[in-house]
Amino acid sequence: MNSSLIALAVVAAFTGQMPQDQPPAAPEPATDRQEEFSFLKEKATELSLFRGADANEPQPLKAEPVLRYSNSERDIGSLDGSTFLWLVGKRPLAAVSTSVRKLNSGAYRECTSFSSAPLVCRTGQTTVWSPKTGGLLDRPLEDAAAPAAGKPQRLTQMRSLARRFTASCYNPRSEEPTELRLLPQPLYRFEDDAAGILDGALFAFVVSNDPELFLLMEARSDVKEGESAWRYSLARMSSQKETVRLDGKEIWSVPNYWRDPAEDRKTGPYVEAKVGTFVPRTRE
Question: Quick one: which of 46, 50, 73, 256 could link to 55 by a disulfide (CB 3.0–4.6 Å)?
């Protein structure tokens, strides 16, 4: 028996197993997603949203996110993100997405309004956003059948109606378009009798599953006519230029957010800002 085999036999005798060529590498410490989520939720809940500058009570922020997302398709996309909703009654009033991005784990906040009335958003006593109105709001959806009587049937209707919309965002350097993907299931479903809403749903157009555009679909009651009809609103959730089409015809577009004057960015329907850096405890 040669010396190599003798050595192997000795190891086997003492350990009960033959040695491997290379010991398994120690696993890389994984980022705790719960820790990331706690950080993202903290960044959302530090905001207070008011309906007008003179309002005393902030609007409620839905306790849990309607979407947890990441963006693997972009080089500087989000590693982790969460979207929360502010509500008035049960209807979405505005949305905030907080995310940790790939570039140096920078933390970012994006807000968008679904309200035709002015809002004021503060951290402590500092106003960080004061939109005068929302995006493209409360439009009738032409050539749509009346809302069905049953709730499951209305969901089928809303999903079908949402597919009539298509949208693109544009690379800020090359102006190359990216077709946004419609998530088939709504992020949030609601009804609000006090607001005359028989049924409603919030849909998202995404890259990966990162929301870039919101479509708010509602079956609204017409008190005068005594019947309901479908209406829709659109709200950007991206700083990139975007275009939206209905049945193939362009109905709305928004320019690159960062090319707007600084003052307009503070009072527009959408805002984006860096709000820190995520450092997990394993790296502190």
Answer: 50
